[in-house]
Design a protein that fits this description.
alpha+beta; HIT family, subunit A; about 100 residues; 3 helices; two-stranded antiparallel sheet
């Protein structure tokens, strides 16, 4: 997570220097997450406002999460919990014999 010292609710209200620093820190997070975890991709984002999912409504912060093919959210990373109820080969075994004709 990238959390600036400046306490503002919107990007519009953030000082240019703080915006630049956030992006530089996000770049560093990307670099180190890729080197350490070797993810397939990353989610980098902001939730601005309560209705957008911001836990701290009046303080901007960025989430930086590594992602792997087959995961569906950040639970694997932060909660050490797999959210798939079964692995894909097991799903294939169940579905390959289904009559898909409509």
């Amino acid at each position: 997570m990238v959390v600036p010292y400046q306490h503002v609710a919107t990007l519009e209200d953030m000082a240019e220097e703080a915006l630049l620093e956030m992006m530089r820190l996000a770049r560093e997070c990307e670099k180190h997450l890729r080197a350490t975890y070797r993810p397939d991709g990353l989610n980098i984002g902001l939730n601005l406002g309560q209705s957008a999912g911001a836990g701290i409504a009046d303080h901007i912060h960025m989430h930086v999460l590594p992602r792997w093919a087959g995961d569906t959210n950040f639970m694997t990373v932060t909660g050490e919990t797999r959210v798939l109820p079964e692995d894909l080969p097991a799903t294939w075994e169940k579905l390959k014999s289904v009559d898909w004709a409509v």
